[in-house]
Amino acid sequence: MASTYTSRIRLTKQGDGDNPNSWGTVLNNGVTSLVDDALAAYTTVTLGANATVTLSAVDGGADVPRSAFLETNGTVGGAHTTITMIVPNHSKGYVINNQTTYTETTNVVKIKTAPGSGFTIPQGAVTQVIIDTDGSVWGTNAAGLGFGTAADRDVGVCATNIADVSLGDLRYVRTSVTVNTTVRGDFVVEAGSLKIGTSARAYNPITTLTDAASITSDFSKGNNFLVTIGGNRTLAAPTNAVAGQSGSIYIIQDGTGSRTLAYNTVWQFVSATVPTLSTGVNDVDMLIYMARSATTIDAVVLKNFDR
């Protein structure tokens, strides 16, 4: 009686009286080696030349679709925006490593059987698929990964690529409160105010400005600034100023000294008198300001910090 083959991974089954004196070779090549492939073989399938790639089955012999692990590579796009990899219509599982290059984000790589429905393999994914007895291909889903019933998503850096959290897990500062809320340590949001405890500190870092003929500052970067001037300069109107913002700007003479500073008209001074700077080498002055509006900034200059 002639040899037959198993229905799933197509191993050789010895027929009565078949292969006399050679069954050891058949056993090695038609069973043992094929079991090894089915359990551990890693095979690369190159995509791109054709819209459909059929992985043909060989009963009792080595073939690609018997492998346990399949890596897809090549390029999808251009003439073929979708490439379908067809595997034998036998129940089986695969781990697929999709290393295919996509020329457009809408490109697709699918795996299916000839009669069954297919599964789209995400680009760059390492995923497991199974083929059921109807020839349908199923991929690992969110529930199988322990994510419950939530939709599949990546964890990344943009707003659409974050994991779901419960309200109990979410940490935020409320825009309004009716009871005191401790955010961290001595940092407390009170009803109508912000409280910092006695054992905590609050500060705003000093942002160094670029020395230039016209010195610009971006008030969205902070409240306190510092610049060492290397020539006669003008303090330009700051960008992104908001009413109520206050802070200071250190103005330091360089190693030559005697540098002067003019001011854009948004800067307003006491008695309408524009101040002059200290002129000594490395002298340190401080301009203290309060924004009356985005375009009107009241200021005073305290001169020659030293001892």
What descriptors fit this protein?
mainly beta; 307 residues; rod-shaped; 24 strands; single chain; 6-stranded mixed β-sheet; 3 domains
Number of strands: 24
Quick check: average pLDDT?
86
The biggest sheet amounts to: 6 strands, mixed
Number of domains: 3
Terminal residue distance: 110 Å
SSE class: mainly beta
Q: Summarize this, please?
A:
β11 and β12 form a beta hairpin. The longest helix has 18 residues. Helices cover 6% and strands 36% of the residues.
Write the layout of secondary structure elements.
Layout: E1 4-5, E2 12-13, H1 23-40, E3 42-47, E4 52-54, E5 69-76, E6 82-87, E7 92-98, E8 101-102, E9 108-113, E10 119-120, E11 126-131, E12 137-139, E13 181-184, E14 187-190, E15 193-196, E16 206-208, E17 214-215, E18 224-229, E19 233-235, E20 246-253, E21 261-263, E22 267-269, E23 284-293, E24 296-302
Parallel strand pairs: 3-5, 4-6, 5-7, 5-8, 6-9, 16-18, 17-19, 18-20, 19-21, 22-24
Antiparallel strand pairs: 1-2, 7-11, 9-10, 11-12, 13-14, 14-15, 20-23, 23-24
